[in-house]
Amino acid sequence: MSTSAPSAPDLRAEMRKGAESLATAAPPSQERGITSDLSVDEALLLHAGGWEPLDLVCGVAVVSVPVGVWNWGRGAISLASDAHNAAVDQAATALRAECGKVHGHGVVGVRVDVEVRTHHIEVALVGTAVRPAHGNDPRGRDAAEAMPFVSDLSARDFTLLLRAGWMPVGLAFGACFVYAPRRTAGTAMRQSTQNVELTNYTEAMYSARESAMERMQTSALEAGGEGVVEVKVTEGPMSFARHAVGFAAWGTAVRLVADEHQFVEPELVLPLDDAVVAFEAQSLRGAGGKR
Amino acid sequence: MTGLSDSGNPVAPPDIPAGDLPEAAVRRLQSGAYSSGLSVPDFAACLELGLEPVALVQGFCVMQWAWYGSGSGYMRGMSPYTFGSGGGGYSETYRCPHGFVSAEHRTWGQNLEQPWVEEAWARGYGTAYTRMIEEATAQGAHGVIGVVDRIGTVADTGTTEFHFLGTAVTVDGGRPPAGGVPWSTYLAGQRLTKSIEAGFMPVAVVASLASVRVWAFCVTEYLMEGQVGMGWGYTGGGPQLVEQVSKAHMAARQLARKHVRRQLVGDELHGATIDVATRELAQGDEVIDCTLRGNRVRRFKDFDPIAPPRPTVRLG
After folding, report:
1. How far apart are CA A251 and CA A37, in angstroms?
2. CA of B301, closest CA in chain A: separation in Å?
3. Of A235, A259, B259, B305, which residue is most buried, by most CB within 10 angstroms?
4. Is the model's pLDDT at B271 over the cut of 60?
5. From CA B90, how far away is CA B112, in angstroms rounded?
């Protein structure tokens, strides 16, 4: 590989050129400007990968949770779990619709905000719609515009994923709420003076975890994915119903679009900006030198 | 919208006289020494670009909000039975499917854009911004970099303070902007350098607030209280989409983008941030405020994509 570095641009000349562009009033324009929430780095990387941002898009859904579902019971709280999963599905549908309006092929950097309240669950998704700059989407333009992908990967991770021969296909999501079984009065009294595991909560957590992860993986498969990357999880008892534990897992479903995985083969870099700036003379004495 | 010029830049309202810098500020700015809010790395990057710091410039404006007071004509939206369908902006009316139930039954509901809130916010934001730019103009600056805007409440007074802060700079050997009004950007340091290198010149920081009031009708009220299957067309015992509130949330975000797009005038918006705050004023009466801000930039040369990056693993 060639090690010759590209010549550095004359930044001062570029700055003067930029200032020159504002020295005369711009003619009125009806052009629809691009909007994006990408950082400068992300935008540049996206362009380097042959993609371009189009528009800031969002999808929001508020789904009701029927009254009484949080009352103490047994097993999964299926109505609340259904409400959570429905809210994510509806929000993703709204997000894809906005992406489709600007002819985007997908949405990257999606921020997932979820608020679980007693009687409703609110899900808000915000990201930047993108498309290939030269139209070379491996899925084909029509297919891509008909079903844009939704991905919570940053533009940086998206670019790296593409380079490795993979594509995001959608946001995989699964949530489940489970009642923590009641302990009997005798068990509670016996355990009150013990340092002991509360197996009812542990088991409820495992149960919620299993259902949520299964739902997430099912949604990934339904979207045509082979796996899910960057999985995030949230778990714990509900603030308004401590006897109910919730578990949510989400990530980006991906599939291989190249013939085979492209190994990225990163270079090793030894940075010189070492955090240790002070030379410790005592370290020369070795372990036996300590007094 | 109040506070925007034809070119989309925020300007002071007509009752804010130009050149009204406090005397002490004029004295300080003329002292000869410059000040800057840049960190040392940002300062170094700024000099590398040929930008010379002139002064740390600021603008303030404190606004009082008066629209939620009791007796306000806008407290409960615009009744579709007496006023029509809204006050000029976005509005959507929902009508009860049940027929007469009781006098307390919510026979209609509405999602209503609150332009008077948005205009007041834009006035506060635009005035503080213009005051900062005025200080920069007085110094002969070409631009303001590293802009920070803080919007917060003034303790328990029901008022909002808008505060802008940035470092005014001149471009070494560069021409001043058209009309002498300095450009501005939230960026500084290496991020500004990369933006310039990529061919995007900052024009102005832009922001907007969209405010949507949700006045729930009976079905929304039932659903938000978990009482499902309470109406014709809304049957079923399971979870249901709360259409009115979902649409209000979408509308708030879409309106914020529409307002910002109006300020872009064909330019691009980079590094946008979107923040949403909801307030429940009473049962079934909610306000959704969406703030969108970012850097308006103009392409000054053909895009020159960077070389495909080399993946690295950092040792140490």
Report:
1. 20
2. 8
3. B259
4. yes
5. 6
- Name the domain count of chain A: 1
- CB proximity A14 to B under 8 Å: yes
Residues B192-209: what's their mean pLDDT? 93
Is A289 within the bounds of a domain?
no
Domain presence at residue A20: no
Give the minimum alpha-carbon distance from A223 to chain B in angstroms, rounded to a whole number: 22
Closest by Cα among A131, A153, A150 to A223: A150
- In chain A, which ranges are E strands? 51-64, 106-116, 120-132, 149-150, 166-179, 227-238, 241-256, 267-269
> Best interface-test mutation with B: which of A3, A16, A40 has the largest number of B CBs within 10 A?
A40
Whether A1 shows a pLDDT value over 60: the answer reads no
Chain A interface disruption, residue of B46, B191, B250, most A CBs within 10 A: B250
Is it the case that residue B10 has pLDDT exceeding 70?
no
The residue with tokens 């933006």 is: B195
- ipTM (interface pTM): 0.84
Residue A282 lies in a domain: no
Judge whether A281 lies within some domain.
Answer: no
A4: DSSP letter: P
C-alpha to C-alpha distance for A93 and A74, rounded to whole angstroms: 33
Q: What is the average pLDDT value for chain A, to the nearest integer?
A: 89
CATH number for A261: 3.30.110.70
Average pLDDT over residues B271-289: 88
Q: Model-level pTM?
A: 0.85
Structure tokens, B160 = 């909002």
User: How would residue A25 be classed by pLDDT, with cut points 50, 70 and 90?
Assistant: confident
Q: For residue A19, what are the CA distances in angstroms to A25, B51, B180, B183?
A: 12, 11, 12, 9
Cβ–Cβ < 8 Å for B114, B148: no
Q: Residue A113 pairs with which residues in a beta bridge?
A: A124
Neighbours of A74 (CB within 10 A): 10
Q: Which residue segment(s) compose the domain that A255 sits in?
A: 34-183+195-266
Residues of A in contact with B238 (CB under 8 A): 66, 79, 82-83
Give Cα B271 distance to the centre of its chain: 13
In sequence order, the 6+-apart residues with CB closer than 8 A to the CB of B136 are: B54, B55, B57, B143, B144, B166, B168, B182
